[in-house]
Sequence to fold (331 residues):
Amino acid sequence: IGTRKNGEPTQSPMSGYRFDTQQPGPFAALSGPGVSPFTQKACSILRALQTGKYYYLFCAYFAILHASSLLSMMNLLPGGRLAFTVDLATLLPILLALLYGCRCAMQTRLSTLDAAVTVYLIISVTSVVLYLQPDNPSDVAAYFYGIHHFVLPISLYYGVKTFDGRQQQGLLRFVCYLNVVSVLIGIAFFYWRPDFYRDSILTEFQNAGYVVEEWQIFGRMQSYLGSTTLGAVIATTIILFTVLKLPPARTALFFPIILLGMLLTFQRGGFIAAGIGFLYAFFTLRWSPFYKYLLLPLVSLLMLAAGIAYLSVMEEDVVSRLLDKYSLESL
Fold:
């Protein structure tokens, strides 16, 4: 997503075309007698993309990812398997990716980045032949693990390109709001400590073969995404705030929330990324002096209050063990 000098978002490659078979253009020859019903249906779907019918479904996709993770932690997810729900929800971006591919094929328009991502996708999918070799040391289940974690998300790259620049910004704004919600829920779980929160984290560690103590469970804020993932999400959200140019009052409200969440995750990499992102945001956002110089003191006071609250709920040995991870000897 980019912006012009007048502040208007740039358009995606999809937005410059009319998906109307009744108008002269790339689809004019696909209407009328002799055209198969399948082709006409494909063109009607492409026209629907231009009107934004699939935009809200794409927003729903990200909401489903967050909701399913939360329900899984609470043991309320139907079927009990989060991976199946995620794969089922990913059918929507896969559909949009296929439609984007059809558009590129009909109009012979493929960017260099599209070509590079497509080559990577083909190599990843066809790598199954390596698992079929005699005496292969890896189980074929590892291939499907890679498909789930690395191949299916590529459909998002193509799916997002079916929207124009304004819709893309709206989608990223919606993702930011979901990230803020995940931090708020994580803060609530961190101080509330419900039984399902403890049991879910303990089970996850045990399934991975780790032996953990209770202080390790509550030493970091996990939310329903995990502390490592949440640290990366928070740092990314800070950068997105600068790209999306949200209203100053809303940004000034969200910044303390996500930085409090960053503090409670105790992720070193997240600290560094969030610090760089915050400095970048502070010096690049064109706010009025009231908002700009109110934000930093507000964040500082909130971070101090969060640290005091954190120390008040944790036992002394818990804090000392966590701080030991940041000593020079542990690096």
In short: The first helix runs from residue 37 to 51. Residues 1-5, 10-31 have pLDDT under 50 and may be disordered. The chain has 16 helices and no strands.
